[in-house]
Specification:
This protein is about 35% helix and about 25% strand. The chain has about 230 residues and is an alpha/beta fold. The structure holds S-adenosylmethionine.
């Protein structure tokens, strides 16, 4: 199986574990600041309509509706995660849509979105094509917000170079996870992804852990680029 397919199918296999990990607060970086950071980044833009791409079990849609009063739509390729999202939020809007379907261009929404967010949901090598594919779904002043692993959170000795890596989820006590291939990018590579997708970087943030001063994540806010990105 190629890595892109293995990446997507790992989330079918990991859906139950993931829902439990998010809802039982088993991911320390989320309490250390990444959840607050993505909510703050979204709230800066006071969205009326939010699209959460790769929404998982839907926590960010639920929180955004509750705290910001916006409308939220969550989409994800994992039917189990979308079922979990819908179950926790029966009046919410969630749909099974894969990234490939978005890139194929056959997906439509009833209106454009003021914020389109990817919270730890952009792991494939061809991120520029996916970002370019969601651009037409942005409102005139709309922004794309990406939170991802900070490029400097490498284990010592690992190459600071773009390339496929493997997440085995060994940090979790439960060993019943399926490994996920993911594409590591350097900081300059992320910058290039944004430009290649025809977006322009509005803001780059590095949420910090207060207990050790290490970056928790990389947070990019991008707007539509007028004209040639180069
Ligand atoms: C690490 S989880 C993050 C979930 C959620 N954004 C959150 O903050 O908890 C990554 C999500 O990306 C989704 N995903 C990964 N590859 C995908 C693809 N090719 N098509 C659709 N969804 C995908 C997975 O199903 C999973 O829900």
């Amino acid at each position: 199986m190629d890595r892109t397919k293995a990446l997507a199918s790992s989330w079918e296999a990991n859906a139950g574990n993931w829902t439990r990990a998010v809802r039982e607060r088993l991911i320390p970086s989320r309490d250390a600041g990444t959840d607050d950071a993505i909510l703050a980044a979204i709230s800066t833009h006071s969205p009326r309509r939010l699209l959460d791409v790769g929404c998982g079990e839907g926590w960010l849609c639920r929180q955004s509706v509750q705290t910001l009063g916006c409308e939220a739509t969550g989409i994800d390729g994992s039917s189990q995660l979308i079922a979990d999202a819908q179950c926790a939020d029966p009046n919410g809007r969630y749909e099974v849509i894969t990234y490939q379907e978005l890139m194929d261009g056959g997906v439509s929404f009833e209106a454009p979105f003021d914020v389109i967010v990817f919270n730890y949901a952009l792991f494939d090598e061809d991120a520029p094509s996916l970002l370019a594919a969601i651009r037409p779904h942005l409102s005139a002043m709309g922004v794309v917000i990406i939170q991802t692993l900070h490029p400097w959170s490498l284990e010592q000795g690992q190459d600071y170079r773009d390339g496929w890596r493997n997440e085995d989820f060994s940090a979790f006590e439960n060993q019943n996870w399926t490994a996920m291939p993911w594409y590591f990018r350097t900081l300059s590579s992320w910058h290039q992804v944004v430009r290649t997708a025809g977006l322009a970087l509005l803001k780059l943030e590095e949420p910090m852990a207060s207990f050790n001063g290490q970056p928790l994540s990389l947070l990019l806010t991008c707007e539509c680029h007028e004209g040639d990105p180069d």
